[in-house]
Amino acid sequence: MGSYTIEDYQNLIVEIADIEIEASSIAESRQILTELKKREEILIELRKMISKDIRIVESQYLNQHRKIIEKYSNKNSNRGLLNIFSGGEPRKKRTREIKKLNKEKKAHLDPYYDLKYQIDHLLEQIKEAKSHQSEYLKNSFR
Predict the structure, then answer these.
(1) Quick one: 103 exposed, middle or buried, by C-beta within 10 A (0-12, 13-18, 19+)?
(2) 106 lies in which domain range?
(3) What is the number of structural domains in the chain?
């Protein structure tokens, strides 16, 4: 698996979630259990990939944050009349830029966190479905 967009991840999750879990026979129940295990493994792998994407995005924003701090550090800032003519104090400009950057970061990362939540929810549903299928198989052999 490679790098995916949010839409790609979303489509994969929808595809994985689309499974019929009602069994009318022992053979069907075994097939369903096998399919659930496969899908669970895929979801776990997707979750890892999404976590990696989150770390990459966070790293990029951390670098941008560092550049803003460096841009307005004392060694780079102008003092006196130049500050007045350039639009105010460097500290206020730095704060504005950091706030803007943090908003962008949140907007960029929120969809990834939503995907992780969806995957966690699906993993819980698969766990329950696997339990039901296992119970069905146990009861069928009694």
Answers:
(1) exposed
(2) 25-140
(3) 1
Say which amino acid occupies 107: A
pTM of the model: 0.81
According to the model, what pLDDT value does residue 80 have? 52
6 domain-assigned: no
| DSSP per-residue codes, the chain | -----HHHHHHHHHHHH------SSHHHHHHHHHHHHHHHHHHHHHHHHHHHHHHHHHHHHHHHHHHHHHHTSTTT---THHHHHTTS-HHHHHHHHHHHHHHHHHHHHHHHHHHHHHHHHHHHHHHHHHHHHHHHHHHHT-
> Of the candidates 38, 11, 16, which has an alpha carbon nearest to the alpha carbon of residue 130?
38
Mean pLDDT (10-residue bins), the chain, 142 residues: 83 92 86 94 97 96 95 64 60 93 97 97 94 86 72
So what's the pLDDT on residue 1?
A: 43
